[in-house]
Amino acid sequence: MLLRPVRDSDEDAEAVRFVADAAFAAPHPVPGGGGVRFPGPPPDPGAPLPVPAGPRLHHARHLARTDPDGCRLAEDAAGRPVGVVLSSRREGTWSLSLLAVLPGARGRGVGTELLRRAAAYGRGCLRGIAGGSCHPAAARVQRRAGFELHPTVRLSGTVSLARLPAPDGAVAEGGRGDRDLMDSVDRRLRGGAHGPDHEELLRHCRLLVTDDFTGSGYCYVREGRVETLAATTRRLATRLLTAALGAVGEGRPVLVGGLTAGQQWAVDVGLAAGLELAPAGWLGLRGMRPPSPYIPSETLP
């Protein structure tokens, strides 16, 4: 087995997509089996589709550019991809975005070695964050990496705006000029700014921001999915999520995932909009409390 850096190329991005999709679609192994796929559980028939392939390809290339030492492809003797890990460092916060192993390559230590390389890249970071799934092997892997596991739920369904009150304040369209605002909110909630990740998210998402004398916050929305949301108060987070669901539109499918126990404000907004609640796995954290009010990105947590 050969482990090499993920390159910023269409070919490697497609290899990442292939491995992730194959691992994502495979049945969960029995307890004791190897191989995990981050960051989410397989979608049920009534849930919105997973992150489209296009944005995932772009995110893989983005992390290959910004964090080549934290992104590795595992290849077999014939040069075929069998596993992948994507991770990043942002101001002392290490993020594990993806760890996936092909079903046929599980049980051979591929996932363990990929995680070891990614963890070495994050050595020295005081904080860590990783999305997870309901996959039993994923829990073992995250615990071995020193993460505390915090159960999460997701909201999904079609939006009903009839019972949802209007936002309680101004929400504006955001852009690159809001980078300092967003980095400041990130540092307060997760200990490190997303930095260059904001440039990547802005290429593929609609950005909503709010800023008043009580604080500030931002929310990215893409194709019926709340990609990520961060705010300095629950009131502002409620305002942003309400506006985001309004932006999705009446009767349109939507997904809001990665909600830890501290995000009851988001649960209230989602239920008011007619969305349904379901278990979603967990959020892995190391050296930090669950950020709140915060909805992590599935691909760039």
What is the topological layout?
Layout: E1 2-5, H1 10-25, H2 53-66, E2 71-75, E3 81-90, E4 93-101, H3 110-121, E5 127-131, H4 136-144, E6 148-158, E7 172-173, H5 179-190, H6 196-204, E8 206-212, E9 215-222, E10 225-231, H7 234-248, E11 253-259, H8 264-272, E12 276-286, E13 294-295
Parallel strand pairs: 4-5
Antiparallel strand pairs: 1-2, 2-3, 3-4, 5-12, 6-11, 6-12, 7-8, 8-9, 9-10, 10-13
Describe this structure as you would to a colleague.
The protein is α+β, with helices and mostly antiparallel strands and 301 residues long. It has helices at residues 10-25, 53-66, 110-121, 136-144, 179-190, 196-204, 234-248, 264-272; strands spanning 2-5, 71-75, 81-90, 93-101, 127-131, 148-158, 172-173, 206-212, 215-222, 225-231, 253-259, 276-286, 294-295. Helix 1 (10-25) crosses helix 2 (53-66) and helix 7 (234-248) packs parallel to helix 8 (264-272). A hairpin with a 5-residue loop joins strand 2 (71-75) and strand 3 (81-90). 49% of the residues are buried. Residues 27-52 have low confidence and may be disordered.
